[in-house]
């Protein structure tokens, strides 16, 4: 018997516009606890605006958004703080503070929510988060400018995980990484989801990520989420954009990569 899924993010009737430009209209989306949901759509379809609406950084014209069952729009600061504590965000490009070290960046959200925390404990938590994201321990005292692109993403992820969130927002985390770096970041995301029981809202253009780690994919087009499901379910829908996206040359390459990875795993299991 199918169990009822626990909805962690619910968006209903969302409308966002900038001047005459309507970005979203009547957009609905549910995200379930524990899943990695990929959010895809052409450039400018409003993926980042959707994320900003969910986390309360963008006040929509219309609609309702709840996270953990609590509305996020128009909340008092103290109420919003209690919700914000429970999620972590990796913005596009990492958005690290360039004048702070990696460890100090990780400490920013901890200090914001727990200003009286013992500095020794603060340092310990930051060091732990740095190592947890696969960075070497000596990355903590480094400044963002001293890091590679992949390391910056990991540092941004360490900061997003600073408060042990239940929900993680990732806005194009593998953009700008080479395929090996991107695959390693995907693996890290998946393993964190498993070990921490995270729910992950992943905006991406990276088809390899969708195939490798997403449980479901939501497709933004025509100002709405036009479909949401597993990749196989989406392909079966026979929608021209979805068809082109998943069955075009990049989609076929992503399938080939996934099959090759499956072969390697099978061989490893047989040995
Ligand atoms: N603060 C803003 N003021 C005016 N227009 C905005 C603002 N933020 C976003 N937009 C517009 O809203 C639309 C959707 O932007 P958004 O960044 O969400 O797209 P996206 O799907 O994330 O795109 P991409 O894949 O290129 O990152 C774009 O046309 C953008 O120019």
Automatic annotation (TrEMBL):
PROSITE patterns assigned to the protein according to its UniProt record, in alphabetical order: ABC_TRANSPORTER_1, ABC_TRANSPORTER_2
Coiled coil: none
Record keywords: ATP-binding, Nucleotide-binding, Transport
Highest rank taxon of the organism: Bacteria
One annotated GO molecular function: ATP binding
Ranges for domain ABC transporter: 9-247
Pfam families: ABC_tran
Protein name as it appears in the record: ABC transporter ATP-binding protein
SMART domains found in the cross-reference section: AAA
């Amino acid at each position: 018997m199918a169990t009822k899924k626990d909805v962690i993010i619910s968006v209903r009737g969302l409308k966002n516009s900038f001047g005459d430009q309507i970005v979203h209209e009547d957009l609905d989306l549910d995200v379930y606890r524990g899943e990695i949901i990929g959010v895809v759509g052409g450039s400018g379809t409003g993926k980042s605006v959707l994320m900003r609406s969910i986390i309360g950084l963008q006040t929509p014209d219309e609609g309702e958004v709840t996270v953990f069952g609590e509305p996020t729009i128009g909340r008092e600061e103290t109420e919003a703080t209690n919700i914000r504590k429970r999620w972590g965000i990796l913005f596009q490009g990492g958005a690290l503070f360039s004048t702070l070290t990696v460890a100090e960046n990780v400490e920013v959200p901890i200090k914001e929510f727990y200003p009286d925390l013992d500095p020794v404990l603060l340092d310990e938590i930051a060091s732990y988060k740095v190592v947890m994201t696969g960075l070497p321990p000596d990355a903590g005292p480094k400044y963002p400018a001293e890091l590679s692109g992949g390391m910056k993403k990991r540092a941004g992820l360490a900061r997003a995980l600073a408060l042990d969130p239940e929900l993680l927002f990732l806005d194009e985390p593998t953009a700008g990484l080479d395929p090996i770096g991107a695959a390693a970041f995907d693996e890290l995301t998946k393993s964190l989801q498993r070990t921490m029981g995270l729910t992950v809202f992943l905006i991406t253009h990276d088809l390899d990520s969708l195939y490798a780690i997403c449980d479901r994919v939501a497709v933004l087009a025509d100002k709405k989420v036009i479909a949401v499901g597993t990749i196989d379910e989406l392909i079966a829908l026979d929608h021209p954009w979805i068809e082109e996206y998943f069955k075009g040359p990049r989609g076929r390459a992503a399938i080939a990569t996934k099959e090759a990875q499956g072969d390697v795993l099978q061989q490893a299991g047989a040995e």
